[in-house]
Write a structure and sequence with these properties.
alpha/beta, 403 residues, Purple Acid Phosphatase, chain A, domain 2, 26% helix, 7-stranded mixed beta sheet
């Protein structure tokens, strides 16, 4: 109980950083009354090759067995898809996503940031280390990112110093964070974002060792780290539910963001579904935001609440790297969830397919959008839901049993 009270006392609500207002675009998503529209996506990796093409790159030296310089990833991408102008502007990497954000105008943009923002040289000897320079954090502002889930297997790639600098940089830019901190209390504290005229969105963020997060990255009462879940047991459900109850007020929307599971494959273990259902039943979760998979996986509607079991990579520097082509990790999804601000129930879920080319997000071909629709529809059918393709090549989630 003392820990829960400390959590509540230490947290200061944050507001979404403003972005310039632009004219509405054709096909603007309808916004029902009393609705909150949340943008979510999977892993955002702005380090290594992508950091090198931005205006203020870090030292390109890597500590990998595959390549010794981050510039090698730039060369692989250019060999695969053509030259990348350097340096690019901060908005370059987002490409077609910028038009989609303007079209939908979501109330909140939440990403899983799998990149330390730091000049630290204290790399962890774990094979792959992602970082971008603090001077390149402007690319997050160019996308209007309001919140970052930090509980993942890359946020401490450059040690405690790298994590602390990441928190400082994001704080200076007014971007809310959850899932990592200078202590256990700070790592467990949610991000709280106030949506004008609609109340609060509370974001809890957790990692699991099944995603490759090292056990010794867990925050301690006096030491930095991530909010690490030991398992998906009943005791863990009680722990998370207790944390939510200590913070949640009537009318709050709760998003629980979890970094779990391996990178490839479509299997959703039964214990993961049970955990998601329990968070909805007992912690009042409106959206389960899962990530770690390098490609999108199944979506489920349970008691009118949304479970995204794995959102896939949103942006990475994997172009030109062979392996696992059947999963199409070059294809990303923008998830736009419309949530009833009163009940917390899902009103609509629309997804925009994108494709990574030259470290930038582009609209894919119609055939690629069809491939995503068929793949996700196949996976969602197991949970009683379906995916259709709109005339504009956007994916629309629906549950045939829901009237």
């Amino acid at each position: 109980m003392q820990m829960l009270l400390a959590l509540s006392a230490r947290h200061v609500p944050l507001r979404i950083p403003g972005v310039a207002s632009k004219p509405a675009m054709a096909g603007e998503l309808r916004r029902p009354e009393n609705a909150v529209i949340v943008f979510l996506c999977g892993d955002v990796m702005l380090g290594r090759g992508i950091d090198q093409v931005l205006p203020n790159p870090s030292d390109p030296q890597l500590h990998e067995g595959y390549l010794t310089s981050a510039l090698g990833y730039v060369q692989l991408a250019e060999k695969a898809h053509g030259p990348i102008p350097r340096p690019v502007g901060f908005d370059y990497v987002w490409g077609a996503a910028l038009d989609e954000w303007r079209r939908v105008n979501p109330d909140l943009r939440l990403i899983n940031l799998e990149t330390a923002i730091t000049r630290s040289e204290a790399y962890e000897p774990k094979g792959i280390n992602y970082r971008m320079s603090p001077e390149n954090a402007g690319c997050l502002l160019a996308a209007g990112i309001g919140g970052c889930s930090l509980a993942n297997n890359h946020i401490l790639d450059w040690g405690d110093a790298g994590l602390i600098e990441t928190l400082q940089v994001l704080g200076r830019h007014g971007i809310a964070t959850a899932g990592a901190g200078r202590s256990l209390a700070e790592a467990r504290a949610p991000a709280i974002l106030e949506i004008s005229g609609k109340g609060r969105v509370i974001i809890f963020s957790y990692a699991m060792t099944t995603s490759g997060t090292p056990p010794d990255w867990a925050a301690t009462p006096a030491g930095p780290g991530v909010s690490l879940l030991p398992d998906l047991s009943e005791a863990t459900v009680n722990q998370v539910a207790g944390q939510v109850r200590a913070i949640k007020r009537s009318g709050d929307l709760v998003i629980t963001s979890v970094h779990w599971g391996g990178n490839w494959g479509y299997t959703i273990p039964d214990e993961r579904r049970r955990f998601a259902h329990a968070l909805i039943d007992r912690a009042g979760t409106s959206v389960l935001h899962g990530h770690s998979s390098h490609h999108p996986v199944a979506i489920e509607l349970y008691r009118n609440r949304l479970s995204l079991y794995g959102c896939g990579d949103f942006l990475n520097d994997y172009e030109g790297i062979a392996g696992y082509e059947e999963f199409r990790s070059d294809l990303s999804l923008m998830y736009f969830a419309t949530i009833d601000a009163v009940t917390g129930d899902l009103m609509n879920l629309e997804m925009t397919p994108l494709q990574i080319r030259r470290f930038r997000l582009h609209h894919p071909t119609h055939e690629d959008a069809q491939w995503l629709q068929r793949t996700l529809d196949r996976e969602c059918r197991r949970f009683g839901s379906r995916i259709r393709l709109s005339p504009e090549d956007r994916l629309v989630f629906f549950d045939p049993s829901r009237r």
